[in-house]
From TrEMBL:
Residues 12-24 have a biased composition (Polar residues). It comes from Gordonia bronchialis (strain ATCC 25592 / DSM 43247 / BCRC 13721 / JCM 3198 / KCTC 3076 / NBRC 16047 / NCTC 10667). This is Thioredoxin-like fold domain-containing protein. The chain crosses the membrane at residues 30-50. The keyword Transmembrane helix applies. Gene3D superfamilies: Glutaredoxin (3.40.30.10). It holds the Pfam family Thioredoxin_4. Residues 1-24 are annotated as: Disordered. Keywords: Membrane, Transmembrane, Transmembrane helix. Residues 67-236 form the Thioredoxin-like fold domain. Coiled coil: none annotated.
Amino acid sequence: MSDKRKSGASVPKTTKSKYQPSANSSRTTYILGGLAILVVAALVIFGVYWSQRDKGDADQAALAANATMIAGPESAPTIDIFIDPLCPYCAQFEKAYGPQISTAITDGKLRVRYHSLHFLDEASASGNYSSRAGGALTCVAATGNSQVFGKFLEAIYAVQPKENGGSDLSNADLARIAGEQGADAATTKCIADGAKVDEAHAKGEESWNQLHTVLGDQTGTPAVLHDGKPVDTSNTNWLTDITGSNNS
């Protein structure tokens, strides 16, 4: 039988490769693999260090100067509460702790500096809802009436628009809600005109910067600081621990 294929080309004999990995090649592979693991570990450690490096205490003067509202006596323990009007978790926080916080303020056992942020503006239908709601809160805060402020905050969270939803509240809506919670005519006009939106936006920027100093890449809302340090609000007794009494 012919050893040729139909094409006419001869079929060369298959020879077994004589190449065998040298001991050095094998050792080098393991060394390089070990070095790669060390490099990855070093990068992880450096990454943790890098994310932690900016963390520290917030500037108390900056927190006070850029608060949306300050309520409660100066002699009481002071906390800073950071919210975004569009943040659904902030609404849950307000529902869970708002009444206790209001009672502690009224009883003179707590001083609260509220900070309205606006990082969720782009997630609102209007593109600036958080800033406008922050402006509305600033209008109410300008009266110094912490009770009306608390009621208004609770009310806008009760009708909170959805993130990436198809609609949100207009300035007229916010003004109407404020009036229903006891705001006077001058305050509702301030809200309807958007008179303090720019002020609220600027304060929100600096408040975010202060919060980022403390929380770094974990910055978000709701967040609470006490004496410039983060409070673990997953501990349901966090407020009692600060005020030293049960306000439930």
